[in-house]
Write a structure and sequence with these properties.
8-stranded mixed sheet; alpha/beta
Length: 369
C-alpha cells in the first residue's frame, strides 16, 4: 500500500476551533494550511486542473456539514437490498481504484473531513432511538474507505466506543487498506465488524491503485480476528476477466489459510456495475484499465452490468468455492434481483425487509456463540 500523502490542508474558518480540526493539524504539523472562507470558490478553482480528482486525493479539506450524514444505503430499484445505513463523516478516498464510482459522483474533489462530530453522534443517537427492536447495521465505507485515513483522522476509534454501548446496532468498517493497528487495543465488545473488499492480485495490482496488496489485507484481517473482531468480506466488484476462474478460487484459498471461517459474520458478492458517466472519466484517468472490456449493458436501474448469464455463472461458482471452505458461511448478493438470487441459491428473500431480518438472525446467532 502506498504511503498516505497529504500535500496541503484547506481549513474552513468555521471549523478552525473544532477539537477534531486541531487534532488533525497537530498530526500533520509540516503540511501547509490555507484558510478558506468560500468553499465553492475553492472547488471552482480546482475544476480547471488536468486531473482534479487525482490532485484532490492529496488535498485535505476540513469543514462543517449541516445536513444529514446518516442515510440508508442508496441500493438499486427493483433489486433486493439489505437495509444497511451509511455514516458519511468523510467524503472521498485517498485510494484510487479505476472503477470507483466516486469519480463521477462527488462534486468536491478533495478528501473532505466534516469536523462537527458532536452533531453526527447526536444524529446517529436520534436515529437509533427511533427503532430499538431491530438490530441495525451502520457503516462508514460508502463515500470513503473506512480505515485508509485512520492514521490522521481517528473517526473509527471515536465511533467504536459509541457502538459498544448500543445493544441494537452494529458498526461495520469496510476497507481495502491494512490500517488496523489503532483498532487492536480497543474494547469493541463484538459490536464492530471489520471487513475487506477483496479481488485477485491481478485486479488489485492493475485496477486498485494505492490499496494494500491481498496478503497485507489478509494479514490485517487475521490480526483483527485474533483480537476477537467479527470479520466480513466483500467480493464486490467481481470483475470478469480472462483468468477469473483461476484468480478467485486462489484468492479464497489464500484467505482461509489465515482466517477461521467461523469468525466470518458475512460475505457479499456483487458483479461490477457502474453509472454511464463513469466510463469516460475512468478511461481518461486510467488509460490502461480493462474493467470496461466485458459484456456490459444497461440494466433496469440504468447502471451498466454484465449480462445476467455471466453474473449468475460467477455467483454460482463463487458460492461453490466458498461453500467448499465452510458450508455455513453467510453469503448474500448485493443489489441483485430476486430472479438472480433464485438461480444462484435455489431460493430468494421475499423482499429487502426479509433479507434484513436474515441479517438480524445471523448477527444474533453469531453473538450467542
Amino acid at each position: 500500500m502506498l504511503p498516505l500523502q497529504i500535500e496541503k490542508i484547506y481549513l474552513d474558518e468555521k471549523a478552525e476551533r473544532d477539537s477534531v480540526a486541531q487534532t488533525i493539524l497537530k498530526a500533520l504539523p509540516d503540511i501547509p494550511v490555507e484558510m478558506v472562507q468560500d468553499k465553492r470558490a475553492l472547488i471552482r478553482r480546482f475544476s480547471s486542473l488536468p486531473d482534479p480528482i487525482g490532485t484532490g486525493k492529496k488535498r485535505l479539506f476540513i469543514t462543517h456539514f449541516y445536513g444529514r450524514r446518516l442515510k440508508p444505503c442508496p441500493g438499486t430499484s427493483n433489486h433486493i437490498c439489505c437495509g444497511y445505513y451509511v455514516i458519511n463523516a468523510i467524503t472521498n478516498c485517498p485510494l484510487d481504484c479505476s472503477y470507483c464510482v466516486l469519480q463521477g459522483y462527488l462534486n468536491n474533489p478533495f478528501l473532505t473531513l466534516y469536523t462537527n462530530w458532536d452533531d453526527l453522534f447526536q444524529e446517529v443517537e436520534a436515529f437509533l432511538s427511533t427503532d430499538r427492536q431491530s438490530l441495525l447495521r451502520l457503516g462508514t465505507g460508502e463515500l470513503s474507505d473506512s480505515l485508509a485515513l485512520e492514521s490522521i483522522i481517528p473517526l473509527s476509534q471515536a465511533l467504536m466506543p459509541f457502538f459498544t454501548e448500543r445493544h441494537h446496532a452494529i458498526l461495520e468498517l469496510k476497507t481495502k487498506s491494512a490500517n488496523v493497528n489503532s483498532l487492536l487495543h480497543l474494547n469493541h465488545r463484538g459490536k464492530t465488524v471489520v471487513s475487506w473488499s477483496l479481488n485477485p492480485p491481478q485486479i488489485i495490482e492493475g485496477e486498485e491503485k494505492g490499496t494494500a496488496p491481498l496478503k497485507e489485507r489478509i494479514d490485517a484481517a487475521r490480526k483483527c480476528q485474533e483480537k476477537g473482531y467479527p470479520l466480513g468480506f466483500h467480493f464486490d466488484p467481481l470483475i470478469y476477466h480472462e483468468d477469473w476462474e483461476k484468480g478467485y478460487p486462489e484468492t479464497i484459498l489464500q484467505l482461509f489459510k489465515e482466517i477461521d471461517p467461523g469468525g466470518v459474520v458475512w460475505i457479499s458478492l456483487g458483479g461490477f456495475r457502474y453509472p454511464p458517466k463513469l466510463k469516460p472519466i475512468a478511461e481518461e484517468r486510467f488509460p490502461k484499465t480493462k474493467v470496461f472490456l466485458g459484456e456490459l449493458f444497461p440494466g433496469k436501474d440504468s447502471k451498466f452490468r454484465y449480462l445476467k448469464e455471466i453474473r449468475v455463472e460467477m455467483y454460482q461458482k463463487m458460492v461453490g468455492w466458498l461453500r467448499e471452505v465452510d458450508p455455513d458461511l453467510f453469503i448474500y448478493l448485493c443489489m441483485e434481483s430476486k430472479e438472480v438470487w433464485e438461480r444462484v441459491f435455489g431460493w430468494a428473500p421475499e423482499n429487502s425487509r426479509h433479507l434484513n431480518r436474515m441479517f438480524e438472525k445471523r448477527l444474533k446467532e453469531f453473538s450467542d456463540r
